[in-house]
Amino acid sequence: MEIARQIAAVPGYEVVLVCRNEEKAAHCVQGISRNTGNPHISYALADLSRRSSIKVLAQNWKGPLDVLINNAAVTPRDLQHTPEGIELQFATNTLGYFWMIEAFTQYIKHGSAARIINVASYWAGGLDLQDLEFKKRRYNNDTAYRQSKQADRMLTVAFAKRLQPYGVAVNACHPGDVKSTLSKNLGFGGHQSPSDGAETPVWLAISEVGGQCTGKYFEQNREVDCPFSKNQEAIDALFAACQSYQ
Known about the structure:
The chain is an alpha/beta fold and 246 residues long. Helices cover 45% and strands 12% of the residues. Helix 3 runs parallel beside helix 4 (88-108), helix 4 (88-108) runs parallel beside helix 5 (141-163) and helix 5 packs across helix 9.
């Protein structure tokens, strides 16, 4: 919500929140509009762990789209699956990003200096390309989260390369350590305010820097070297694996 609020406070932006719960969505929209004075705030309903839901969302979209921020994430402590049988963290935290970019590329290509921001994390690593859904390993929500965020950073590089000819910048970032349901499930308390946590994603969304570079990873409004961006073979393998989920 804080990312949306900060962007809504910038003159000229129309903001659409993608939410699962309509009651909470309406409450957020009212709060953001009241706080910022921006009347152009709305919501759309979708389950970002399900490709079919994202496809309907995209079909109903009235383009173009200038900024897409992928921020959905879950960290269930026990092994859970979507109705399609996909492990829930991988479906939401990784495939959700992949499917959103895939579905909305047709609109964001038409944006002026358009950009995509993938909210990832510095808490990333341990990706197992042979066991993305913990069918062989024992499920651990921390391990699943770390590999999903590594995957987000790798997919950022893959999409940056594919969308660069269209003038679309694709970057990833760590948002900050904010106390939330997600951080509690992982055993972290969180020490930053929501405002601080939203700063880097918002900066990438509205600053000149966010549109001038692509395929990069940022923390605290500065570019940070990402070791996961250097293994092109693994990036291509992950992209192909995500494409296989239809």
